[in-house]
Amino acid sequence: MVDLVVKSQDIIDRILTLELVRVTERAAVAAARLRGRGDEKAADQAAVDAMRRELQRLPIEGTVVIGEGERDEAPMLYIGENLGTSLGPKVDIAVDPLEGTTLCAKDMPGSIAVMAMATGGSLLHAPDVYMEKIAIGPGYPKGIVDLDMSTEENIRALAKAKGVKPSEITVLLLDRPRHRAILEDCRRVGAAVRIIPDGDVAGVIFTTRPDDTGVDLYLGIGGAPEGVLAAGALRCVGGQMQGRLVLDTGEKIARAASMGVADPKRKYDMKELASGDVIVSLTGVTDGPLLAGVKFGKDVIHTETLIYRSVTGTVRKIAAEHREMGKFRLE
Ligand code: VTB
């Protein structure tokens, strides 16, 4: 018989799910106030401040494992920073308070505020290096795509499993010269390629909702911390992802080793990137295929958030209206 008894300390309280919505909503609103001003740093700082303020209020014993950088380079939300009231579960926190800072500064589609919370010790402590990534959404047999297969093999395998021609598959790529070979391979097979300027947390997460985004397959090299955040969301829907750190210098190999990475060539699967119970919340800052951006109306602010929870596989899309009432101010 399947053991349905789950020890309460093993799961992150479901009430925290809604709390995380608040955290990314506040970060998104703070960043959106500075949207389209050409000042990436100011928008990012506003998102960081708001996210930290909200996280400090939560009944958790949180530790930032993916953050804005090391303590000396990030005044807030640095790796190792403790957050919360300490009256609650031990959790790992991964944040990207403003993903796609340039997109926000230019008011272009696709910037989001995003964070993940997972049972303590269950998120990969990824060094700030690149990661090769491959990701697909839910509903496919395990292992049909693989980092060690060619782009053409991956596209053909996915098309077959989806029951379509390779030309009916859409691949998402970050617009970088390093992706030229992958792009050429996609063209050769006839797949469609959507090219985004920045923001591959959202890019990978697009694959969790192919019917909304039209994206079947994420390929290419982006940030490793971003890969861990996105893996959390894929786990919640039964998607698939693999990542491999790009450790191409001795310095990077040593840095990764100091964070516990013994094998520099290791291929991580989704569960190794984000292993425990995880909640991922993302709120749109600018409009995108997954989420509308923040809208400032007269006396009301509109936000849209997606919240993923791995324990149940529930995904909620929450459209919120925020009003400033009485003493309440949305900073
Ligand atoms: C991605 C993307 C980010 O960095 O991780 C990318 O998600 C990778 O780095 O939004 P390069 O820009 O150096 O290629 C961002 O574009 C910016 O952090």
Keywords:
single chain, 331 residues, alpha+beta, D-Maltodextrin-Binding Protein, domain 2, 2 domains, eight-stranded mixed beta sheet, six-stranded mixed beta sheet, 10 helices, 30% helix, globular, binds 7-O-phosphono-alpha-L-galacto-hept-2-ulopyranose
Word description of this protein:
It contains ten helices and 14 strands. It is α+β, with helices and mostly antiparallel strands. The strands form two sheets. Strands 1, 2, 3, 4, 11, 12, 13 and 14 form an eight-stranded mixed sheet that branches. α1 packs antiparallel against α2 (40-56) and α4 packs across α5. The protein is globular. The N and C termini lie far apart (51 Å). The model has no long low-confidence stretch (mean pLDDT 94). Bound molecules: 7-O-phosphono-alpha-L-galacto-hept-2-ulopyranose.
Structural class of the helix and strand makeup? alpha+beta
Judging from the principal axes of the Cα atoms, what is the shape?
globular
Q: How many domains make up the 3D coordinates?
A: 2
Kindly state the percentage of residues in helix.
25-40%
| Biggest sheet character | 8 strands, mixed
Question: What is the terminal-to-terminal distance?
Answer: 51 Å
The kinds of small molecule bound in this structure are: 7-O-phosphono-alpha-L-galacto-hept-2-ulopyranose
Q: Bin the strand percentage.
A: 25-35%
Instruction: State mean pLDDT (0 to 100 scale).
Output: 94
What is the CATH architecture annotation of the largest domain?
Answer: 2-Layer Sandwich
> What ranges have pLDDT less than 50 throughout 5 or more consecutive residues?
none
β-strand number: 14
CATH fold field value of the largest domain:
Fructose-1,6-Bisphosphatase, Chain A, domain 1
N-to-C order of helices and strands: HHEEEHEEHEHEHHEHEHEHEEEE
* Global Rg: 19 Å
CATH hierarchy, class of the largest domain:
Alpha Beta
Any idea what the CATH superfamily of the largest domain is called?
A: Fructose-1,6-Bisphosphatase, subunit A, domain 1
Number of helices: 10
